[in-house]
Write a structure and sequence with these properties.
Layout (H helix, E strand, L loop, with lengths): L1 H127 L1 E10 L9 H15 L5 E6 L7 H23 L6 E5 L12 H7 L1 E9 L8 E2 L5
Parallel strand pairs: 1-5, 2-3
Antiparallel strand pairs: 1-4, 2-4
Helix pairs in contact: 2-3
Amino acid sequence: MKITMLSGAVALSLLATGCATKKYVTKTVAPVEQRVSAAEAKNAEEDKQIASQGTEIQDLDRDLSKTKEKLTDVDNKADQANAAAKAADQKADGAQQAANGAQQAADGARTFAQNGIDRLGHTIDGMNKYNMTKQETVLFRVNQFRLADDAKQQLTDLAKQAQGLDRYVIEIEGFTDKTGSSAYNDRLSQERAEAVARFLTVEYKIPVRNITMLGEGWATPVAADNTRDGRKQNRRVEVRLWVPETQSGHTVAAGGGAQ
């Protein structure tokens, strides 16, 4: 009986102790579970945030990759632009050199043309300016206009020189001494000039258009007319060969008169 009672007491004691322990455990564990749940909830929220940040980081990585690609493309385009700029500079330099060469060529052509114009001007001036290259004085007897043999030889020398020229003029001036009237002397001096022109034209085919002649009577004596020898020198025809300055040697050959 005592044993049974003791056993019951022990059982009651153990039961009472168990109930107390369970309450203690419950009171102790519940806050922990709450903290754990809160921590788990917080961890879950942080995991979501981390996952969201990871997504954002991936998006940033993709954006960064695209940006790098764009930068690379921009760099390539910049390199191409630089290469094109260098090529353009080279072409510009070539164009400038070509322009300089063209300017030099134009200047040279202008200078050449100006020199040609100057030379042409000098040539034209020379063609319009005549120099006397040969002169002969043919003498006549009193009251005569017939050519003596030595006079013909003088005119032959002048005609042969003229035949080798492209352009020339033969100037013929007839004169007399003072003997006789002025009208007679004018006619006689003209006949003497015509005799010379006729000889040159007939014998040596000198074109008439290349001859000028004039009888001047006793207009320009070359010696005193009061002496026989002076009158002889005044009975004359002066013949001059004129050629353009561009053809002449700037020398004058003077012939002698008949005796």
